Amino acid sequence: MDRHTEFQDRLARSHDAVVCVADYLSRRGRSVTISGLSIAPTVSESSHYVDSGDLFLHKRVEVKQVQRPFSCVEDYPYEDILVCSVASFDRARDKPYLYFVVDVTMTHALVIVVDQTRQSWTTRSIKDSRRGTSQLTYTCPKSLAQFITIKE
Length: 152
Prior knowledge:
Layout: H1 3-27, E1 32-34, E2 55-57, E3 61-65, E4 80-85, H2 86-91, E5 98-102, E6 108-113, H3 114-117, E7 122-128, E8 133-141, E9 146-149
Parallel strand pairs: 3-5
Antiparallel strand pairs: 1-2, 4-8, 5-6, 6-9, 7-8
């Protein structure tokens, strides 16, 4: 058996281990995507079959919308960004990676990268006018958010 055939066999067998790990993670509530397995038919074609990873764990992203337009950080209508209720965030097993706060026209957004901003969050009691109740909510200074244009 030549070296390339041995490589093809090892790669095909290793896929069973990838599926095993994906199943393990999935049974523990993780969303997993297994990369497609494609094996170069010849050594000369191997540069077209570069591995991009065995599997990927999905990261949680939360999307919120404010009912006002804004086109930059400076004209965002509030001093701080309401991130999430403290109870909801604290009980989440998989914490969000990002929060998108989209303006009413859905052309612009502020992006909060949780790992980069979490240390600067504060809490504030926010009244829910629809329910007539208040809840403790995490806020993030708008200066820490990244502004993006979603649509021109």
